[in-house]
Amino acid sequence: MANNYYCPICRSNINIGNSLVFSAKSPENKKGLVFLDTELGNYTKSTHPDFELQEGVEYKFYCPVCRAKLNKEENPNLVKVHMTDREGDEFEINISNIIGEHCTYKIEEKRVQAFGPDADRYKKYLDLPLEYHKYL
Ligand SMILES: [Zn+2]
């Protein structure tokens, strides 16, 4: 079985087949569904042709089931979901909310594993204990 993703709020499964499904909103209030590949570090995404994602733009991401906002409160550039891998281990996954910024973080307690060409972007932030985040 592949990686399984779910919403940290309602715990509904948000992956279907090889796609992780989000509801997304642009700063101009354009809304639509985004399918991301469930493989960590694979940045293939698809949307309906009427909902084109704009490169370099910050989107808000929502759970497609309960509509909870998934951008982190303390760093809105990171979108948080939960994942269980094929061994059944549970992780927090963070991805960038900026279209075209390719970084993914797999977090297990204090251990952060980074993926993607832009992985350095938030690595320093995630490596720091939470209490220091407000100084960044
Ligand atoms: Zn939800």
Task: Briefly say what this structure is.
By secondary structure, the protein is mostly beta strands.
Low-confidence stretches: none
**What oligomerization state is this entry in?**
single chain
Amount of beta strand: 35-45%
Q: Residue share in helices?
A: under 10%
Shape: globular
Strand order of the largest sheet: 1-7-8-9-10
Taking the alpha carbons of the first and last residues, their distance comes to: 39 Å
Tell me which ligands are bound.
Answer: zinc ion
Rg on CA atoms, Å: 14 Å
- Average the pLDDT over all residues and give the rounded result: 92
According to DSSP, the number of beta strands is 10
General description of the model:
This protein has 136 residues and is mainly beta. The protein has one domain. It has one helix and ten strands. It has one helix spanning 120-127; strands spanning 4-6, 15-16, 19-25, 31-37, 45-47, 60-62, 78-84, 90-96, 104-108, 111-115. The strands form two sheets. Strands 1-7-8-9-10 form a five-stranded antiparallel beta sheet, covered by helices on one side. A hairpin with a 7-residue loop joins strand 4 and strand 5. It starts with a strand and ends in a 9-residue tail after the last helix. The mean pLDDT is 92. The structure holds zinc ion.
